[in-house]
Amino acid sequence: MAASGSGGSRADNGYGSQQQPRRRKGPGALATAYLVIYNVVMTAGWLVIAVGLVRAYLAKGSYHSLYYSIEKPLKFFQTGALLEEYLLIAKYLPGIVPSSVVLTAFQVMSRVFLTWAVTHSVKEVQTEDSVLLFVVAWTITEIIRYSFYTFSLLNHLPYLIKWARYTLFIILYPMGVSGELLTIYAALPFVRQSGLYSISLPNKYNFSFDYYTFLILVMISYIPIFPQLYFHMLHQRRKVLSHTEEHKKSE
């Protein structure tokens, strides 16, 4: 989800909000160094995925089934976003949570869920074009997002990256969400047939779980959450880019 767009929505300047009632103390030098390294590594990782997609496409001459060419790095770096989520939820660093933790958590967890519990677990969907749809959306979103964080932490944020961060999501978020939903939908028949991750009664725990129904509920959950994330980013775009334009005029 672009993601995951998405990546999820964060602050106007990366890790801190522009308009707060009280100015929060930023991360110290050691924490900043750690965050810079983390974001540089994540940027490089998603660049590896992008290059892998391009090379596979050029070698095959087709965009079908490109998932296999980037499967391992995708799993590694998408799962690596959980560390970022831990920092957000734990509020390990002051001022790191300017926007809704719930929305951010949903985006990160939904992507990890798509990666492992759907695409990895249901092998039959790995050849679906919808997988490429969300992988491309995630890849572009994350390269921009982690670059944005890196330059923000270094206090040298190019306007082009800021503009891309708050503009390209307009296309990438719906693209990623469409790919995610289509992939889950494609997995449903195989999940129902195989009984994947389902638990039937009777059992000693007196508990049942239907993974097929759970996936349907996951799809339904996109209805209230995605618009919140999308319109929040639209609001942030107006605020951030208009603020930048006013700052340029005042110089």
TrEMBL record:
The entry's localization annotation reads: Endoplasmic reticulum membrane; Membrane
Q: Which family does it belong to?
A: Belongs to the very long-chain fatty acids dehydratase HACD family.
Reading the lineage from the top rank, the first entry is Eukaryota
Under Enzyme Commission nomenclature, its number is 4.2.1.134
Transmembrane region(s): 33-58, 96-119, 131-154, 166-191, 211-231
This entry carries the following GO cellular component terms, namely: endoplasmic reticulum membrane
Q: Which InterPro entries match?
A: Tyr_Pase-like_PTPLA
GO MF assignments: very-long-chain (3R)-3-hydroxyacyl-CoA dehydratase activity
Taxonomic path: Eukaryota, Metazoa, Chordata, Craniata, Vertebrata
Question: What are the BP-aspect GO terms?
Answer: fatty acid elongation; sphingolipid biosynthetic process; very long-chain fatty acid biosynthetic process
| Gene giving rise to this polypeptide | Hacd2
Sorted keywords for this record are: Endoplasmic reticulum, Fatty acid biosynthesis, Fatty acid metabolism, Lipid biosynthesis, Lipid metabolism, Lyase, Membrane, Transmembrane, Transmembrane helix
Q: Reply yes or no: does the keyword Cytoplasm apply.
A: no
- Region annotated Disordered sits at 1-25
Organism of derivation: Ramphastos sulfuratus
Query: What protein name is recorded for this chain?
Result: Very-long-chain (3R)-3-hydroxyacyl-CoA dehydratase
**Pfam families from the UniProt entry:** PTPLA (PF04387)
Q: In which pathway does it act?
A: Lipid metabolism; fatty acid biosynthesis
Q: What class of enzyme is it?
A: lyase
Q: Its membrane topology, per UniProt?
A: Multi-pass membrane protein
